[in-house]
Write a structure and sequence with these properties.
159 residues, alpha+beta, Aminopeptidase, 7-stranded mixed beta sheet, 35% strand
Length: 159
């Protein structure tokens, strides 16, 4: 875990097992932040299909403050998905720390390109973190998104 160990200030972030109580805290947070406002829910099948994903939680004082998932792909690519930060902790740097941690984790596990589908409103956040828009706007879960990518090896080579 070379890259993860280089990080500072990430002691509240951890990878959690699918189906664990921490995982379910993340599901609750993703529902509250990402799904409920759109009138959407998770299906049993969707949650069962997450068993191959990597679940990362920002957890402190018995509260899940942030969560995201990584879905391994092929050709050294991994997709960041379902990034959710509790509304009361927005702007506290939790999202940036979680993205940084997920990048380090991906590099430590042989992935070199991070991909994601960013809600249109989140594009500036990801651009500040070095992500590039790839392609045109599209609809996903009823709202505008953009595909974004980042070359992790290039971005982290000077760290």
């Amino acid at each position: 875990m070379y890259y993860v160990h280089k990080l500072k200030g990430h002691r509240h972030i951890k990878v959690v097992e699918h189906g664990s109580r921490y995982y379910w805290h993340g599901v609750d947070l993703r529902y509250a932040v990402l799904r409920e406002p759109l009138g959407l829910n998770f299906t049993r099948e969707q949650l069962l299909a997450e068993d191959k994903d990597i679940h990362i939680i920002y957890y402190t004082d018995a509260v899940a403050m942030g969560t995201l998932m990584l879905t391994p792909s092929n050709n050294g690519r991994i997709k960041m998905r379902q990034v959710a930060i509790d509304d009361q902790f927005q702007g506290a740097g939790i999202g940036s720390k979680m993205v940084e941690y997920s990048e380090a984790y991906a590099l430590d596990h042989g992935f070199t390109i991070m991909e994601l589908h960013a809600r249109k409103t989140a594009v500036p956040f990801y651009q500040k973190l070095g992500y590039q828009v790839v392609g045109d706007e599209f609809l996903e879960v009823t709202i505008p998104h953009y595909k974004m990518t980042k070359d992790l090896q290039q971005a982290w080579k000077d760290r």
